[in-house]
Design a protein that fits this description.
By secondary structure, this protein is of the alpha/beta class. It has 3 domains: 156 residues; 72 residues, no CATH class; 194 residues, Rossmann fold, CATH 3.40.50.410. 51% of the residues lie in helices and 8% in strands. The protein has 25 helices and 8 strands. The strands form 2 sheets. Strands 5-4-3-6-7-8 form a 6-stranded mixed beta sheet. A two-stranded antiparallel ribbon has the order 1-2. Helix 4 packs antiparallel against helix 5, helix 15 packs across helix 16 and helix 17 crosses helix 19. The two termini are 31 Å apart.
Length: 494
């Protein structure tokens, strides 16, 4: 491409945020566009399909790995996006079923067995491969039980039941039992019952109203989902468990919980018993910082009006990520972060507060408003540092902007990244690494950076993680490659 056309392409890429701030239509890389915006397409399958098609035409394997990264519910970096993964895979099945057949076996490892069920019946070769995978696993699990080996998979847990209340699920269950197992309804039900008993899933206990299980062994998602049922049907034992939890004599599992899920529940309840559980769940969240927990990170949390859409998912994500980063990093900004809307506001967390008090500390911000004035945040940081002669080593090494990225025009003379760099160049301080953490609940047709913007990173999703890789990332494209080509996703091959 000639230099003229390159320059024209760059000019044509200019756009604005919904609030008039200079932005880009694209990162100038189809794979990065998917990585940077895919998780925000939860309710926009048309836009997601477009992103997936463009990314797949650029690099098949890399595109597939991005979808598995979005689905990953166990790795530190994955985003746990179920619908985005399923809709993306359906689009790839439509484009290239032969290739997708080769990666179906990886789905239960990164997601759940019902992800396979969701893809069953779309295309003949895909359905045949899914049937083989499920049948092989169930046969292996039955053989283990026959040999008194209880370490079986969760496949039976996620297979649909024929006696469920959902008409749609019953239809799928009957299709699976006939086409995959060739069983009548009674035999299929007996098989699932035996396997689920061995798995010891909490739902089986609840349906039979048997509350002899150990609350410390209940998975985090189930503990969150069924907490009211526990209190209602087994209040004495459950209260005793919560008291033991508060004293450090019991444990709660939070490995599969995301910070925003806890914050969402905290913001919606004033029940002391529930809040006690949420507080312990918050404390038990994994350490995603890894070895680099002494870095000087500063979270900048968007609490503007646009963050309250989609049942306040963006707001819950923004608050939870800001809290998590502030608490877990051990640098000079531990327990500190900045919220911004019309004006920036420094939040200094009391480490003795419980999670409800910490969240309320943010919600009671006297400077909340409807606008998204990011410019004022960096103006505050630099003016304060200059006025008080703050040593360079005490300045943020990484600033994480957690937002839907719809910044106000304010005084930005050009694109956000260029303007911020100029602000720091005009001061005595070095520009920190800037992480644009996009928590938008719906797709926005603009990006804050392009693929080669040095010193910047863009992330899309609600789950913390990848902090070690963030420190190593030089630009958006290089960071994406370090995540998707990591050992976690390298095993996915075609």
């Amino acid at each position: 491409m000639s230099e003229l056309f390159k320059a024209m392409a760059v000019e044509n890429n200019n756009t604005e945020t919904e609030n008039g701030c200079p932005a880009y239509k694209s990162t100038l890389d189809s794979l990065l566009d998917l990585f940077a915006s895919g998780a925000s397409c939860r309710s926009d399958s048309k836009r997601l399909k477009s992103l997936v098609r463009k990314a797949y035409s650029e690099d098949k394997l890399f595109c597939i790995r991005i979808l598995f990264y979005f689905r990953d519910i166990r790795g530190n970096g994955g985003q746990g996006e179920r619908n985005v993964f399923r809709e993306g895979m359906k689009e790839l099945i439509d484009i290239d079923p032969k290739t997708i057949c080769k990666v179906l076996r990886f789905i239960p490892f990164y997601g759940r067995w019902d992800d396979l069920i969701a893809l069953y019946g779309i295309e003949r070769s895909i359905s045949n491969h899914i049937a083989e995978i499920i049948k092989f696993q169930i046969n292996e699990d039955i053989q283990k039980l026959d040999k008194d080996k209880p370490d079986i998979s969760l496949c039976a847990k996620w297979l649909p039941s024929c006696n469920t209340s959902s008409k749609h699920t019953r239809a799928i269950a009957n299709k699976i039992r006939r086409e995959v197992f060739g069983m009548d309804e009674k035999s299929y039900r007996k098989m699932l019952s035996r396997l689920r008993k061995a798995i010891n899933i909490i739902e089986s206990h609840l349906s039979k109203k048997k509350y002899e299980f150990d609350y410390s062994q209940v998975p985090g998602q189930a503990a969150l989902k069924y907490r009211k049922a526990f209190a209602r049907n087994d209040n004495d034992r459950y209260t005793e468990y919560l008291n033991s939890l508060a004293k450090g004599k019991a444990k709660v599992n939070s490995k599969t919980l995301y910070p925003y899920e806890i914050v969402r529940k905290v913001r919606g309840t004033y029940d002391d018993q529930e809040l006690a559980l949420m507080d312990q769940m918050w404390k038990a969240l994994p350490n995603y910082f890894g070895k680099d927990d002494h870095a000087n990170w500063l979270a900048v949390v968007d609490v503007s009006g646009s963050m309250t859409c989609y049942e306040e998912l963006p707001m819950n994500c923004s608050i939870s990520l800001g809290l998590y980063i502030a608490e877990r990093n051990m640098g000079v900004f531990q327990n500190k972060f900045i919220t911004f809307s019309s004006e920036p506001y420094l939040v200094d967390l009391n480490p003795e507060y419980n999670i409800k008090q910490k969240v309320s500390n943010i919600e009671d911000n006297p400077r909340q408003g409807l606008s998204t004035n990011l410019y004022a945040v960096f103006e505050l940081v630099l003016n304060t540092a200059t006025k008080h002669h703050i040593p360079k080593e005490e300045m943020p090494e990484v600033i994480v902007v957690i937002s839907d990225m719809q910044f106000d025009q304010q005084r930005w003379p050009e694109h956000v990244m260029n303007s911020i760099k100029k602000m720091f160049r005009n001061s005595e301080y070095e520009c920190p690494k800037l992480v644009y953490w996009n928590v938008a609940a719906d797709y926005k047709a603009n990006q804050p950076v392009t693929k080669n913007d040095e010193g910047a990173i863009i992330i899309n999703g609600c789950k913390p993680g990848m902090f070690e890789l963030i420190l190593q990332g030089k630009n958006p494209e290089q960071f994406m490659e370090s995540v998707i080509n990591s050992e976690r996703y390298k095993v996915i091959t075609i």
